[in-house]
């Protein structure tokens, strides 16, 4: 049938679909918002799953709270960025064997260090807003001795713009977003995967 997604696609996106279904249920629970904060915090330093999926799911489940969820997600992400900075600044030699290669590659780390020699604020702002892997920038900022205030301001601007764009769209469009997501979820799941990979590719060529 024309509208059927190939079975391989369904298998590959099945775990994302289960995550989506599970996180939507948190929309009516008090702990859902704090789970979002925690995932945003961890993703900024070491956790591999971006908080966008949970933010979207919670917002779709409760559109009137979408801006509040975006606020929590932004705050958690910036706080996690500071945590990543502290890891890089004070504990890098102890944890380097874990972060490279399990969290990010040596090549990605070296590329970010080069970008910091040009303009640290622009580099962090770009990573905070785009699919470029943000955690590499927060940890590397601590290792390279980037000013902590630069990290906080650039992260706050970039992360807030990214997450409020998601939350704002759900807030203004309301239930219509949920219908659209349910209809095209498999395609959206693949788009998220492509963006994740694209972030690392973009990091290689970023000037």
TrEMBL record:
Signal peptide extent: none
UniProt key word Iron: no
Annotated keywords: Membrane, Transmembrane, Transmembrane helix
InterPro entries: DedA_domain, VTT_dom
Lineage: superkingdom: Bacteria
GO CC annotations on file: plasma membrane
UniProt keyword annotation of Transmembrane present: yes
Sequence ranges assigned to domain VTT in this UniProt record: 50-167
Transmembrane regions: 66-87, 136-156, 187-206
Pfam families (alphabetical): VTT_dom
PANTHER family membership: ALKALINE PHOSPHATASE LIKE PROTEIN, DEDA FAMILY PROTEIN
Protein name, per record: DedA family protein
